[in-house]
Design a protein that fits this description.
The chain is an alpha+beta fold and 137 residues long. The chain is 16% helix and 40% strand. It has one helix and nine strands.
Length: 137
């Protein structure tokens, strides 16, 4: 069954600026700028006011209507990223081959040895602004 009109609204907090042009979203806040390209999703992005973003789908089926919440979640995550920031905790575990992870602070990289028993040493460069530290526990 097709829905003629479905929409959802995302509120923009104070101190955050959102620019929308051709389904490309750019969010600027106190912690920096994030952008997201949503041109692959057929939705209508409207700005009824400075503090609201309306995501609209016309003549959408079930899967197309589900994209509304996805786009709203993307926008909310961008807003959270520029206001609160993001922290990701990684635990390095192994089942059989004892993996060895070394943090190279001077090169801003992580070195992984004995991954799946390989002799090859993997070196992963960190992006700018990424902080890494080893837990004390």
């Amino acid at each position: 069954m097709k829905h003629i009109y479905k929409d959802d609204i995302v509120t923009v907090p104070e101190g955050v600026q959102v620019q929308i042009k051709a389904r490309q979203i750019r969010v600027t806040g106190p912690r920096g700028t994030l952008s997201r390209d949503l041109r692959h999703i057929q939705v209508d992005l409207q700005r009824p006011s400075k503090t609201q973003i309306r995501v609209v789908v016309w003549q959408g089926g079930r899967k197309h209507v589900a994209c509304i919440r996805t786009v709203c979640s993307h926008i909310t995550n961008l807003i959270n990223g520029v206001t609160k920031g993001f922290e990701y905790r990684v635990a390095c575990v192994h089942a059989h081959f004892p993996i060895n992870v070394t943090i190279l602070a001077e090169e801003n990289a992580v070195e992984v040895r004995n991954f799946l028993g390989e002799k090859f040493v993997r070196k992963v460069q960190l992006y700018d602004g990424v902080k890494i530290e080893q837990s004390k526990a």
